[in-house]
Amino acid sequence: MGRRTTTTSTMRIMRRSIFTFLQNYQYFTSTPSLLAFPLAVSTLLSQSLVYSSDVFPLIHSRLRSLFLAAGFPLSSELFSLLNLKLSQTILSFLFVSPFTYSFLLLAKASVIKTLDQNKPEENPQISSSISLFIPLLITQLCNSLLILAANATCFFILVIFFNFLYVLGISSPGPTMLVSALGVVIYSIVLANAYIVSNLALVSTGMEKKGGFISILKACVMILFQGRNATALSLAVPVSMSLAAIEALFQYRIVGAYNNGGDAIAMIIEGTLVAYLYALVLVLDTVIGCVFWKICMKDQRIIDEEEMYSYKIEIENKDGKFIAKSISLDEIIP
């Protein structure tokens, strides 16, 4: 056998993450959560502000014209929905990005700084986390380029497929729908892997104090090349579902009450609690990423130690000359 891969248990990582969160409950529910609170408020409000913005119809029409020029079948309901969601995502990103590049990175830095210690401090100073902000900012900018490249690559592949169908003269709804569904599945998989790599790259940057594309490469090696993408995806699903549930709760309780003319004070109090809950989940997501990174590094050290002693050195005497050669134990032990 070659390199032995060590599998990580999703439930074990989740239990350890929750235990770590509860172990530092007073700190995680104060400083990091308050730092992530502005991002939580902007994210929740962006869902409602997008459709009422004057820029949204402009972006939607521009994307429709772009897809039409690229050869996409805009008559398909699937691509109409994709165009709508993509327009919403672009406008939400523009609205939330100032808070993402500031408050979210500070919140992540405070969590990573706490968990980076062998014995975490009970009340770490915020100033000690600011030193991680610049490396995290550089990595976050690189992550944005990675997400942009992933989107561009997927759309480029889809353009090739649809133009190939056009060249072959295939215009029936069946093949078009099949290629559309396949494209959406591939797009979702690529984008999901890009997001988990970006998340782990931020953790790697905070732990090693080095930012940029090198952190993304390390995250790719840990997740994609060492067979941990299934574990990383299974860890990201509960967090994504929790954030989506909180967003739905905000739309139902706060936005619904606002449209029906509810009490303003009650909406502010309830909206603040919902946004704080959203910030707590963001902090827990960073804790999960730190625990996952530590387990990956521990497994890698175990593999390196095993490979260090996986060779046997033999010394042979040929014509009065001593020759040393190494033999892998895999060749000796069947």
Q: How would you sum up this structure, described in words?
A:
This protein has 334 residues and is mainly alpha-helical. The chain is 79% helix and 5% strand. The chain has helices spanning 10-23, 25-28, 31-52, 55-70, 77-115, 127-130, 133-168, 173-208, 213-225, 229-259, 264-308, 329-332, and strands at residues 311-318, 321-328. Strands 1-2 form a two-stranded antiparallel sheet. The longest helix has 45 residues, at 264-308. The chain starts with 9 loop residues before the first helix and ends with a helix.
Number of strands: 2
Low-pLDDT runs: 1-8, 329-334
Sheet with most strands: strand arrangement: 1-2
Largest sheet data: 2 strands, antiparallel
Question: What is the helix fraction of residues, given as a range?
Answer: over 70%
Order of helices and strands, N to C? HHHHHHHHHHHEEH
- Count of helical segments? 12
Shape: globular
Q: Radius of gyration from the CA trace?
A: 25 Å
* Strand percent estimate: under 5%
> What structural class is derived from the secondary structure elements?
mainly alpha
Q: How far is the N terminus from the C terminus?
A: 9 Å
Compute the average pLDDT: 81
